[in-house]
Amino acid sequence: MTLVAPSQSKPWLAGFFIGLGALLWPLLTFGAEPEACPRLVADRSAQVWRAAAGQDRATVTFNGHATFLIETVKGVRAATDFNDHVHVPRPLDAVTMNKAHSTHFTNRPDPRIPHVLRGWNPLGGAVEHDVRISDLRIRNVQTNLRGWGVNETEYLGNSIFVFETGMLCIAHLGHLHHELTPEHLRQLGQIDVLMVPVDGGYTLDMEGMMGVVEVISPRIVLPMHFFGSYSLDRFLSLAARRFDVERRTSPTLVIDKQDLPIKTRVVVLPGRH
């Protein structure tokens, strides 16, 4: 007997096999660890989303400049761009840092913090983090920094840190100086919440940063790294042409994957600039 591939058979038979695969997939993947930030593929409709009911939530507090406190459902606490200038209440389970300026790192982290993740390799070259703490996973995607000399580049000097909890995916761009490559985007995967530096000078210029936001296409954008209202307002005026914009009075935002807006929304949290 000759077997015929569904694509070469009758159309209804091809549909039958596709439907059967969709029904069986959850059973075949039962027990497999869900991927919070599935990598980008050409056909997004082909991706399978697996829910982790009640766990797809995090609380984010803007402490100031580029520092956010991320808290998971199970109480894991992580701070971004941890430094000596912005206060973050203890205890902390993990901190991430970048090296562009002293407001993004410290050489004297509290020794009681179990996981201190630097976004650069002090010896030069690549550094790879992939840490799991209870219901939080932290990993990094490295980018380059502008050097101090003319046309100088410090390769792999910055990291975009990605925080995954349940099926919620949060990314912090760090001190991003350039647009992202397709490989960067592949490594990042699908991001729900994006923390974006919006100063427009020390980091990537505003039009370039807006392009980064558009290509990542998160549901929520949290502006950071702005120096007073002028740079923030410039960024918001550009953002309002493409996205919804909302200002909050509290520095703390509870984010639930099920309640994410369909259209990208820029949410401004008050905090020290």
Number of extended strands: 14
Report the β-strand fraction as a percent range.
25-35%
Termini, distance in Å?
A: 72 Å
CATH structural fold name? Metallo-beta-lactamase, Chain A
Count of helical segments?
4
Largest sheet entry: 8 strands, mixed
Order of helices and strands: HEEEEEEEEEHEHEHEEE
Class from helix and strand fractions: alpha/beta
Spans of at least 5 consecutive residues whose pLDDT stays below 50 are: 1-18, 21-32, 40-53
Strand order of the largest sheet: 6-7-8-9-10-11-14-12
Rounded mean pLDDT score: 83
What's the gyration radius in Å?
21 Å
The CATH architecture would be 4-Layer Sandwich
Describe this structure in words.
By secondary structure, this protein is an alpha/beta fold. It has one domain (58-268): Metallo-beta-lactamase, Chain A (4-Layer Sandwich). Helices cover 17% and strands 30% of the residues. A hairpin with a 2-residue loop joins β8 and β9. It starts with 10 loop residues before the first helix and ends in a 5-residue tail after the last strand. 37% of the residues are buried.
